[in-house]
Every structure is written in structure tokens, then in C-alpha cells.
Amino acid sequence: MIRVQREDFDIGAEIEALTGGDREIGAVASFVGITRADAGDGPPITAMTLEHYPAMTERQLAEIEAEACRRWDLTASLIVHRHGRLEPGERIVLVVTAASHRRAALDACAFLIDWLKTKAPFWKREETDAGTRWVAARAADDRAAERWQGEP
Amino acid sequence: MIRVQREDFDIGAEIEALTGGDREIGAVASFVGITRADAGDGPPITAMTLEHYPAMTERQLAEIEAEACRRWDLTASLIVHRHGRLEPGERIVLVVTAASHRRAALDACAFLIDWLKTKAPFWKREETDAGTRWVAARAADDRAAERWQGEP
Amino acid sequence: MTLLYFAWVRERIGLDAEEIALPADVQTVAALLDWLRGRGGGYARALEDLSVIRVAVNQEFARPDHAVADDDEIALFPPVTGGARP
Amino acid sequence: MTLLYFAWVRERIGLDAEEIALPADVQTVAALLDWLRGRGGGYARALEDLSVIRVAVNQEFARPDHAVADDDEIALFPPVTGGARP
């Protein structure tokens, strides 16, 4: 299941709605990404705006979720990604994967978040006290996503 | 932070209490283990009782959490493990790891749950319609935990 | 043809979407980019470095030699930067 | 000395804990297990196969040659089976 939305999400409620009552599930892995102020080599980030191309973003999120379900034996999965303007400390993305066994849930969750952080069709504009700028793509993230090629 | 308790836990509330308001956190990984009825090669499990040695269990959980904090740059971590009698569908264990970056949170969470599932000082007695039995240790789980030796 | 622009491509062109009538000799993504750049102004500024321009035809990434047709939805944008910061 | 028993060791011995006075010649974990087994009954049944008995001295796993003393807390149990089922 995928959702791209402006609103925040409730982790516990999302996990419960996805997995509650399913007796096949033995393992639920989840990941929450949170907006940070730390910019590494620049002034602190005061806000970040995520722009997206709704039809394409939803299609690609659905495709990567289907890919995870092909690679691992998942009972349920969920991607919730926010768009719009986010301030430091705000949740930005949620991935939940449920399976009978822990390895499938953990590996699928890591796979999805690596993809989302690097390949998801979003563009980021960061605000700092020095102004705003569009973030350029990072090679390091592409390498993290490439870890999965050929696996499992 | 570690807790061994008989009561259930609330995933969203635990994550919020652990991570809320910390501006260093960019990634929160979590894992929930749930009791399953599926016994693989035997009759379905109707309940499972976890026995533990409180002083030793708490000491070992604290040690493995400290080990995870040495191996990865974590901002916060939590292990909640239940004991007592659990029926299929009940939550049994929660691991939460928070870090600035996703790789530390994901890897530390997988490390902790591998350890908990295999090395945590608990003994399991399973009930089925055919009777009850103590579960024997599994070599496959030892191998999963050994994956971490020498890492990261 | 529907054209969609995102991120700084949108800002430089000054539009988020427009409908155009495709000239008969514009039959590929590369030709479309050339033709748009030829409009000058914000189009020329947005498309001055094609190495940082990505194109989707009907919501799928498309290479320069991909065919374009009058009923396509074509989007121009910079390389995606992923969801969250790493 | 405090002895604690867990899981099926506890069930076979029929106690979860007991206080004993340690004989002077029982100075290691191995000697303690031999001495307990010599009590017969549930002790003999619980300790018939020492390959599936683990021992903790003061909450730390201990090998057969580990020293034992009268003020120790010593726990006997089967190999741990981990928290959840895999």
C-alpha cells in the first residue's frame, strides 16, 4: 500500500491498521525518516520543501513496493511519504514491512528506504538563513541503492 | 534503555517517548516480533510461555544494547521484551534504534533483533492441542547471530 | 501535448504546465528539448545544460531518442533527489 | 549458596530456588553438578545430560572449571532459546 500525502502520520496506528489481526505475521519492521536541521557543510536548514509529480511518484512507489514483494515473502507492506514544506523534527517518510520471519521484513524495509531516499521522484528545496536552494542528486545515495542490485 | 515486562507495549508511544523532540535524529528503525501459531513441522501453537532469569536477562540486554551503541552511532535505543504467557498475535518484543543516518539505525536494529531472537536468556514453552513442550535451541538462529561477528 | 515542469525547471520556465501543439518535425524527446530551448528566455535558461534534465513520457523516464506524440504527457525536471535527506 | 533453576531443569528438580551449604570439596561448577546429580531423583533426571545444561555464576555464564563459592548465586538451565520464535 502506498500513500503520498501532505499530512503527518501516526506510526502506531499505521502499523496496527496494516498488521492487526493477521496471524501469519511474526515480524514487523518499520522505518521513519525525520527532517534534520544539520546540513553538514552549510548553515542549518530551517525548512525543506518536497515537490513531486503525483502520477509518476505514485506509480514508482507502487512499482518499488511490488518489487520488494517479489524479492521477499512479505505479508503486508506500506509506504507513506509526505510532500510539501517540512521543518526539522517533522516525520517525512514511513516504511512498514510485515512477514512471517524477521529477515524478510528487515531486508525489505532496508531495501525500500534505500530506494526512497535516493530514487523516489521528489525534488527538495532547502531553506536556510542564507537563502533557499534546490538540492542536487548525491552519488553516495546512488551507491547505497545499488547495494541491492542482484540481490537477494 | 531496556525493559522486561509482562504487559503489552504501544509502539507509537514508545517511539515518541524515545525520540520525540530530539533534533539530531533523522532515522528511526523499529522491529516488532509477534507470536505466531505456525509451528512448521508440528501442530499449531495455541500459546507460548517465556520464562526468564530477571537479573541475568536485564544484565545481558543492557550489555547488548551497549554493544550496539559502541558499533553504531546511535542517538537513542530501546528494547522492550515481554515474558509470561503469550497467545498467537500478541506482540512479544520491540526494538527501536534512532540515529542521525539511516544505515546506523537499520543495521543496529537488525543486529539487536538477531541477538534477541537467539541469545536472549529466555526459555520458551509451547502449548499445542497435543500438549506442551520446551523449545530446544536452534542452530540456524545461532548462525544468524554469528553474521555480526567481526562487523561492522 | 501536455508539458509539465518541476523544481527549478518549473521556476526558470515560470510555468508548472502548459499545452502545446507539437510541430510535425518534432518526433523525439531530444527534438522536443531543442525546440523548447529555441523559444529562448526561461526555456533557454532552464534547458541550457541537458545533462541535468530528466524527461518522463507518460510518467515513465524516457531517453533522448524516445518518440513523442501529440497526446503524450511529457514532464521535464532535474534529477530526483530522493525523499528524505540521507 | 543460592541455587536457581529454570525451564525444564526447574520442572524436573521440582524447585525454582534453594539455599544449600556447599561441601568443602565442591569448588568448581563441574563438581557442583556432580554433587547435585548425586542427590538422585529429580536432580539426577535434570542433570543426566550435561551437554544441555548451562550454568551462570552470579548472572554470568560459567564454564565447568569456573570456581564456585558459598556466597555465589548459581543458576542451572537449558540452553536459552531466544526471545521470540524465528
Structural notes for this entry:
- The complex is a heterotetramer, with two copies of chain A (152 residues) and two copies of chain C (86 residues).
- With 152 residues, chain A is α+β, with helices and mostly antiparallel strands.
- Chain A has one domain: Aldehyde Oxidoreductase, domain 3 (Alpha-Beta Complex).
- Chain A contains four helices and eight strands; from the N terminus they run βαββαβββαββα.
- In chain A, strands 1-4-6-2 form a four-stranded mixed β-sheet, with helices on both faces.
- In chain A, a hairpin with a 2-residue loop joins β7 and β8.
- Chain A is elongated and about 55 Å long.
- The model of chain A has no long low-confidence stretch (mean pLDDT 89).
- Chain C is an alpha+beta fold and 86 residues long.
- Chain C has a single domain, classed as Beta-grasp domain (Ubiquitin-like (UB roll)).
- Helices cover 26% and strands 21% of the residues of chain C.
- Chain C is built from three helices and five strands, in the order βαβααβββ.
- In chain C, strands 2-1-5-3-4 form a five-stranded mixed β-sheet.
- In chain C, β3 and β4 form a beta hairpin.
- The longest helix of chain C is centred in the middle third of the chain and has 9 residues.
- Chain C is globular.
- Chain C starts with a strand and ends in a 9-residue tail after the last strand.
- Classes of the chains: A alpha+beta (152), C alpha+beta (86).
- Chains A and B meet through α1, β2 and α3 of A and α1, β2 and α3 of B.
- β2 of chain A pairs antiparallel with β2 of chain B.
Question: Which helices and strands appear, and what pairs or packs with what?
Answer:
The complex is a heterotetramer, with 2 copies of chain A (152 residues) and 2 copies of chain C (86 residues).
Chain A: E1 2-5, H1 11-19, E2 27-34, E3 45-52, H2 54-71, E4 74-82, E5 84-86, E6 91-99, H3 102-119, E7 122-128, E8 131-134, H4 139-146
Parallel strand pairs in A: 1-4
Antiparallel strand pairs in A: 2-6, 3-5, 3-7, 4-6, 7-8
Helix pairs in contact in A: 2-3, 3-4
Chain C: E1 2-5, H1 7-13, E2 17-19, H2 29-37, H3 41-46, E3 54-57, E4 60-61, E5 73-77
Parallel strand pairs in C: 1-5
Antiparallel strand pairs in C: 1-2, 3-4, 3-5
